[in-house]
Amino acid sequence: MAIPPGIIFILSVLPFLLVPPTLTYGVLRIINVSTPTPPSTFYKEHTDKQKAASLNAHLIPRVPRDSFDFFGYKLTKGLVKNAKMNYISEAFRLWAKEYGPVFQIELLADTRIFTTEPDHIKALLATQFDTFHKGPALFKQLQSLLGEGVFNSDGDLWKFHRSMARPYFNRERIADFDNFEQHATLALAKAEKRLAEGYAIDFQDLVARFTLDSATQFLFGYDVESLAARIPYPSSPPLPHLDKLNQLNTPELVSEDHPSNAFVDAFAEGQEKSVRRMRVGDIWPVSGEDFWRDGVQPLRKVVEKYIEPMVVKALERKKRAGDQKETGDGELGDTLLEDLIQQTQDVTMLKDELINLLVAGRDTTASTLTFCLYMLAEHPTIEARLRREVLEAVGPNRQPTADDFRGMKFMRAFINEVLRLYPAVPNNNRTATQPAVWTSKNPGSKPYYVPAGVRIMYSVFLMQRRTDLWGPDALEFDPDRFLDDRVQKYLTPNPYIFLPFNAGPRICLGQQFAYQEMSFFLVKLMQRFENFKLAPDAQPANSKPPAHWAQGDARQAKEKIWPQSSLTMSVKGGLWVTMDPVKQ
């Protein structure tokens, strides 16, 4: 019988809590659990100072904590509370404002480094890539959902996963555009039908279904058909005739048990619970439901019910075909799964990889498309300009091509500006496998010392809003910053200030695929709808921005919606909008 996660955690920290060491050691040896024995905070800081001095460096500034805040408990509790009610990364933004773009904090006796400095993030992702890994702590937090896939592995295993997926994303496929066309047409038809009833639509829900169906089609060759399920009605619809419509008991209003719902719900809940572990930190096994059982594992099993039969069928086809694929000798397959089974027949490894890529292929694109519409609704002149480019390049009805997108400069600038202010993955983590030295931007200052084993949090979200990196208008939405002289002034000399797709060896393999999918959907949207408007009456009351945001000194004062972050960024409560069909 498996030992509950909470029990394993408690036994592993008993030495730190000064339980008699002999008894603790004996119990841990019997159940074969490793025992971390962290030194005291004071001793570690002393030795770190000595090591830094030996390298002519100094320690990164530390955020002071209350003298009675043992192990940083109060600080950690405050961060959790802050995350629930404040803007994304607001506590870290305020600390950066006071202590600079790089600082240390102590969370539950664990020192963390936080940075928004481009040179430091460049070191994490590229120049010192071998020094900074995802690390064992993050692996444990995400293992129940992601397994040992490409986003939750390091070293040789990561390289193998990366090499498996690379060939598929190194080519352009006409089939991708047919896939986009099929699902975009279906999604927009559902939107038009709901709008015709007089209701706002949750655009975030709609594009999440579009990207999920498109992603499962190109990953597995099997569409989960989430767009066939009913899209949600507003929780507080503004129209008075809802009761009458409900009495009609029409299929569109009945809550249907569509087969895709279990997959969609389990996938979303699994991500939410995994992120909760990341926020809690190392003590996640003793927080909430994870104490007695793994709360994510059952959700992973639901997702696997959809994926495993497809993997098994693909392996059976390969077995029948021998060493040659059914598509021909040496020819790449139509789906990523067909490519992957040419390199491994390990079912667990295949499932891990597909689930990892599904997170990237679905959630990041859905996030960006959601914030694209938010910005279109907030900026009618930008909507008009983008539509003008679409009509000039593609026309009112034609399916766009890759060549069309290459000439649509404003489309790319618009998407980039959305990614700058609302990056799909706003924050990330690394762990130092060995000591490192980082440059300091303070004139005449010594470099910073980064101890081995320390965890580093870096925020692309905050970095891409820094006025010293992007200019005094950094908090304003302006796609022209990617077209005018600001490119040469800010971005060209310092390309690491813009990292929506990561950088270095872990740069997103599907970057161009994502640009094409987002551009395709936006073209179809512009061809079919206009006059995008937010629908605050349809927005759930508990998802509207808190009143105190209006007094903030950053972009939260402008927000009409509540951005939130899990593995990817989203809008709390959905993005409820109205739009008008284009008159042909």
UniProtKB/TrEMBL annotation:
Protein name (record): Cytochrome P450 monooxygenase pc-3
PANTHER family the UniProt entry points to: P450, PUTATIVE (EUROFUNG)-RELATED
Cofactor requirements of the protein: heme
GO molecular function: heme binding; iron ion binding; monooxygenase activity; oxidoreductase activity, acting on paired donors, with incorporation or reduction of molecular oxygen
Keywords: Heme, Iron, Metal-binding, Monooxygenase, Oxidoreductase, Signal
Family: Belongs to the cytochrome P450 family.
InterPro entries the UniProt entry points to: Cyt_P450, Cyt_P450_CS, Cyt_P450_E_CYP52_fungi, Cyt_P450_E_grp-I, Cyt_P450_sf
Pfam families assigned to the protein according to its UniProt record, in alphabetical order: p450 (PF00067)
Residues reported in the UniProt entry to bind heme: C508
PROSITE patterns listed in its UniProt record: CYTOCHROME_P450
